[in-house]
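Please go through this chain and its backbone structure tokens and walk me through the local backbone shapes. Keep your notes short.
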Amino acid sequence: MTTVFQMTPASAKALWFLAALCILMAVLTVMFGYLAYSARNARFEVSPRGVRLVGDLWGRTIPWEVIDVDAAKALDLRVAPEYRLKRRTMGTGLPGYGSGWFRLRNGEKALAYVTDPSRIAYVPTSDGYSLLLSLEAPDAFLRALAETRPR
């Protein structure tokens, strides 16, 4: 004859913990999916209001009052290593994609959206940081800045 004894059931705490863990995993999955989408679909708009960065968590509009158009330039980070991203202070760093706040090798603070280091638009601001933007045509972007800025 076999006698069977049941374990005392776990408290509801274990179920709540597992539910919270599942919710956290779902939120992280959505967030990583959004970052993956943003890495391929970020864009930069030049308008009468300023430069609008659209993509992931770091998007914003930079008003003309703080943009130093005359000091903006096209860069190839392979040739100008002092502008390379050195340390991420708040942002996304994936292989082939860096976005958010970084320190550059020259010590400067930058808001960066970098995928291709050979085609960068460098745009300093009077707010203590610069923009580092990977673009298909950085020279065309810089021309748009010069043509659109308020006089």
Remarks:
- The chain has a mean pLDDT of 91.
- Residues 7 and 141 are 69 Å apart (CA to CA).
- Residues 12-41 form the longest helix (30 residues).
- The chain has one domain: 42-148.
